[in-house]
Amino acid sequence: TDASLTYINNSRKDVGTQSVTATISRANYTTLVLTADLKITPATILGVTFQGGSFKYDGSLHSLEITGALPVGAIVTYSNNERTDVGSQEVKATISGSNYIELILTADYNYRDHARGQ
Question: Is this prediction's pTM over 0.85?
Answer without folding.
Answer: no
